[in-house]
Amino acid sequence: MKTTRDKNERIANLKFASVYPHYITKIEKKGRTVEELQQVIEWLTGFDKNTIQKLIDENVTFQSFFQKANLNPNAHLIKGVICGYRIEEIENTLTKKVRYLDKLVDELAKGRKMEKILREA
């Protein structure tokens, strides 16, 4: 399934602060913690707890969020299907990064062990 230009633009302009509470709700319903969520985000982006909060306060878009990020060199090891899209087949770089984050949050909510979520080469 290919992403469309409109879908890619919508994702780019989506505010991180509008999605973050949904991540929290999803993982807490499954017994995971905000600290674990922040650990996952830090692994992917390099953002610590304070930086995540600053980006939320600044109401940044996902485009800006990932422009500021230092993507983990092992992020390419994130594979599978999320939101109906196979991550490995997503061509738009920003959309792929957002789906990486979605996949990590999904794995956290599904109870996957942290060592497996934080991929090592």
User: How many angstroms separate the termini?
Assistant: 27 Å
Radius of gyration: 13 Å
Return the average pLDDT rounded to an integer: 94
* CATH superfamily membership: uncharacterized protein sp1917 domain
Strand content: under 5%
Number of domains: 1
Helix-strand makeup class: mainly alpha
How many DSSP helices? 7
Shape: globular
Write down the CATH class: Mainly Alpha
Spatially, the strands of the biggest sheet line up as 1-2
Q: How many runs of DSSP E, i.e. beta strands?
A: 2
CATH level-3 fold name: Helicase, Ruva Protein, domain 3
Low-confidence stretches: none
Order of helices and strands: HHHHHEEHH
Second rung of CATH, namely the architecture: Orthogonal Bundle
Helical content band: 55-70%
Largest sheet: 2 strands, antiparallel
InterPro entries: SP1917_dom_sf, UCP033199
Protein name: DUF2200 domain-containing protein
Account of the protein in words:
By secondary structure, the protein is mainly alpha-helical. The chain is built from 7 helices and 2 strands. The protein has helices spanning 5-13, 16-29, 34-45, 49-57, 62-68, 93-109, 114-117, and strands at residues 81-82, 85-86. Helix 2 runs parallel beside helix 6 and helix 3 packs antiparallel against helix 6.
